Amino acid sequence: MVTIAPVEPERPEPAGPGRRSGTGGLAALLVSPTLLVLGLVVAYPILSAVRLAFFQRDDGIDPETGLREQGDVFVGFDNFTDMFTGDTAERFLNALTNTTTFTLVAVSIEVVLGVLMALLMHRAFRGRALVRAAILVPWAVPTAIAGLLWRWVFQADGVANDLLPGAPVLWTTDGAQAWLAVVIADTWKTAPFIGLLVLAGLQVISTEIYEAARLDGAGPVRTFFSITLPLVKPTLLVAVLFRVLDTLRMFDLPYTLIGPGKDATDTVTVLAFEEAVKFGKYGPASAYAVVLFLYVAAVAFVFVRLLGADVFGTRKGSR
Amino acid sequence: MSVLRWRYLGIAAIVLYCLAPFYWMLVSSLRRTNDIFDSGPLPAPLSLESYRAAFAEGNGFLRALLNSFVVAGVTTVLALAVATVAAYALARLEFRGKNLVLALIIATSMFPGISLLVPLLELFSGIGWINTYQAMIVPSVGIVLPLAVWNLTAFFRQMPHELEEAAQIDGCTPAGAFRRVILPLAAPGVFTTAIITFIAAWNEFIIALSVVNRTELKTAPVITSQFTGTTSFDSPFGTQMAAGVIVTIPLVVLVLLFQRRIVAGLTAGGVK
Q1: Are B24 and A277 in contact (CB < 8 Å)?
Q2: Model ipTM?
Q3: Which helix (H) or strand (E) holds A55?
């Protein structure tokens, strides 16, 4: 399945001369502000990050003058080799693992819950508008605030421990329970959103297909796996891709729910943020960011090229 | 037990799942500081103590709310102005490289924020932008722009092509057709996109956290996450929950008023 920008067949020019002659120039004029902004705010920083990743700040004392020097020194691949084999390797590889496990586990749970929610909401029922508003609430709550909210829920003498049997769990300290707390908070915030997207996908499936399946004697389970799932797959795949990319750059939740500097929940973004903002080490921070960027690009590539996620909406109706 | 009944039970479970944590934030914010660890479903007695604490002078929370409005508002206006014209071209005009432009715009939305943040931080330190509004607004515009373009393109695509043709027959240039015919009709789509963009900008955290360290310029989510109690050992959960409710309320009101449109906007790009 071709998914990225298939070449469209040349359209025959309309007969009237000059009818579309101004279009190309006009289009360029209209699109250029967007490209300019994205160039300045996205493309330039990315290139700049790649450059910074090869430098380290040198804050040494100049031996001749005795003055404090500040400057960036080119260090080649040092920042990258440090990341994988040097002193900071353990922290970085741990953060990379956290980033990956958060993504795999949270997105899987969110997809299952989201599909379940969509199936439940699919048929018309009374109070549908209300339910739709309810489902948008977790999406609308700022993620940083959601982190604080769940930090409160997961306090040692908080409501989560009140509801659970057994000894109180110290959720927000560190360890597997902190990791789980982040997964739960993320699932709460985004599973309903996936449900919403899947629901939209369900609603474009014609009822006739279901009728036909029923007449052929297909049960609900068979219908789900043979009709519903294949037909919502394009929608679901795009939703999953964007959720995966979002989770790979996760920062707000671990930062406000657990706090930085915890082995169980530090993600690559948290690590890079700490290096850059707290310690002013732009070189290593950029190197982290570049590795994360490459990771994200690889995942996006796999989704778009190998799994056929139709991100760009270029597939034309035919299926 | 009928299927219908199971369905309603399931739907009740969804509503509970979505609202219970938010409800807990609301209930906790309305307790007295002394009752904050109560686990009853209602605050008894009801108290606005936490809200008074949140707005206490030293916190700068009111100013932070204003900052959030300025940053999210200006971001939304700028992003919409730039995105509307681009989306019109992408949806309605035929030109070479259109798919490439679309792909580029979507691709930029996939970049992790941290790869933008570190170089921008270095740049902003260099040009004296640390502790300014523009240091928060400019990156935010870039971050919400792909979303805005994508949403608006989907809206413009839904409009019948006869509109411009009629306008052109009546003597409008393509630019005139856009201004006089398309833009007024697309107003609902632009409005919906504005809401979604505003929510995204309002919720932005990592950039606002990094480029500003003066209390007067912090946004509401940032300042809420940094509240300290009367002593540094005291976690001010009541105050944080009250502030959290205040930060979230504008968004919940938007969601309640415009849920149908927001859902249409969010799903427009995803479903063909």
Answers
A1: no
A2: 0.90
A3: strand A55-58
